[in-house]
Amino acid sequence: MRNLFNTKVKIILVIAALLTAGLAIYSGISNQSLPGVIVQGVLAPFRAAGTALTNTAEKYYSYMFRYEALDAQNKVLEEKIAQMEDVARQADAVARENERLRRLLDLKATNEDYKLVDAYIIGWSTSDWESTFTINRGTNAGIQANMCAITANGEVVGLVTEAGVNYAVVKTVLDSTLEISGTIATSGYNGMVRGGYTSGNDTLLQMNYLPSDAIIRNKDQVVTSGSTVYPRGLIMGYVVDAGFEETGVAKFALLDPAADINSLEQLFIITEYTTEVVSTPAASSPEETQANEETQPYSAPLG
């Protein structure tokens, strides 16, 4: 045990002597004092750690600076994209408006007797049995109850049921309580058209009271028969199916509405017109009967 201890001491002394000799030689070569060499050797690891820490800090600062610069550039790009999207939306709106006005001019050219008031939809109200919306025009624009609403293509949208000073409520053709006398254009068969909610077809119209021997074809066009409320020849829809009513003594037809009600933005109210009215037993809805009994702004002669 004592020999082992003596051996370790000897080894330590040899290593110390070698280190001392090495440091003395390095001191002589570098012209530095031995204590200075020792101090530098002790501080070398700390200097390396400090250099690494400094480099890390510089990299982090550079990263943060680049991040802030990129973030600022990203915000500028986002603002430019938002501006471009806004311009695109405005361009689309202007294009749609121009297209509606072009169709309106065509409608007026085809129906010179129509006096029209344009309006925009500002609110919707729908349920299992009704379909109505509110527009931004009212009595101050000449709109009254029992006036017909159409698209720029002359497609029936519905009927004004309430009018305030600067608003009006329109009941759409999809509403199951609104009935309009219609005619199948190709065959002349007459019937009553109403919303299909009661039959479970909430996006379709149903034309009732057609003759049991009526020949009904898909894609047949159905138009208004004409009354003091609805001018004659306005497009209501196109036949997509047909069948017999429960009584078996009359037929019905399901129609795809001509007006895309759910995507409407703008419509037109017919405040005055002059056209032929066709009086038939089948063309007398509650709204039309009331309109016949009251004074209306239309100048449509009965015949």
Largest sheet report: 6 strands, antiparallel, barrel
Please give the number of β-strands: 12
Q: Name the CATH superfamily classification of the largest domain.
A: Rod shape-determining protein MreC, domain 2
User: Overall mean pLDDT score?
Assistant: 77
Return the domain count.
Answer: 2
Strand content of the residues, in percent?
25-35%
Number of helical segments with 4 or more residues: 3
CATH architecture of the largest domain: Beta Barrel
Radius of gyration: 44 Å
CATH class of the largest domain, named Mainly Beta
Major sheet: arrangement of strands: 1-2-5-4-3-12
User: What is the structural class?
Assistant: alpha+beta
Please give the share of residues in helix: 25-40%
Stretches where pLDDT is under 50 for at least 5 consecutive residues are 277-303
Termini separation (Å)?
138 Å
Overall form: elongated
Instruction: Fill in the CATH topology of the largest domain.
Output: Thrombin, subunit H
Q: Encode the helix/strand succession as letters.
A: HHEEEEEEEEEEEEH
